[in-house]
């Protein structure tokens, strides 16, 4: 009975993420048969949980919106995950008053105080056992994140001053999504003056205000807001394909804060695709691996690096 209860709680926890899950996904996540998933879904409905099911190809399960669901307590793994996330992300912010990092630091120090005794012990043990290296990311006012979230939820226009290249412009936008990409926060919005989609770095936004004017959400031109952010961030960059005589893990380690695609092409050989400004940046980062690599494209970067290597060798 205990196993059944735990499985039911795990199923309910998944459904409360507001995601849609196929039967196959639930089978994999819960480690049970398809028949057991269907039986557990029926049992949740008997308990009063409004689980909606869409049959056929593309079918899924989800909790119906608009119903109050009793809260669930964290389990041990979730508490550990929270502590690790707070420790890692708080270290990326200098912790100025009102910043995301400062709020995370406070939450990190008091999470175990609001948990039941058993879970509090796990949280305290994790905190006592880890250290997180500090690395610098732009400071974000947590109040701005909240204002933007509220405007997106209520479909309210935003206005703000935006700093870029030493200049500031006043912008009026319809906010759509907030995106976290490579240690920075971005706002994806429809610019009312430019009459087009724009991506704004949140740390460059000043004097943010929520307007009373409402709007009807527009359809995104890409599959996800993240695609727009990536396209905007790398607008002036070039695609590079490099074959590196190193493992995927080693390559990912030296390019930890870059958006990359990796492919295993042999034992200790990896092909990586990314976008960057020039070959100097690429050479600098890959040199940390101290292994051979070949620039597959663009060809002129390969030639430039060969000329540079020859000059360094004095040939």
UniProtKB/TrEMBL annotation:
Coiled coil: none annotated. Residues 4-69 form the HTH deoR-type domain. GO terms for molecular function: DNA binding; DNA-binding transcription factor activity. InterPro entries: CBASS_pafABC_assoc_protein, DeoR_HTH, HTH_11, PafC-like, Tscrpt_reg_HTH_DeoR_CS, WH-like_DNA-bd_sf, WH_DNA-bd_sf, WYL_dom. Gene3D superfamilies: Winged helix-like DNA-binding domain superfamily/Winged helix DNA-binding domain. Keywords: DNA-binding, Transcription, Transcription regulation. Pfam families: HTH_11, WYL. PANTHER family: PROTEIN PAFB, PTHR34580. This is Predicted DNA-binding transcriptional regulator YafY, contains an HTH and WYL domains.
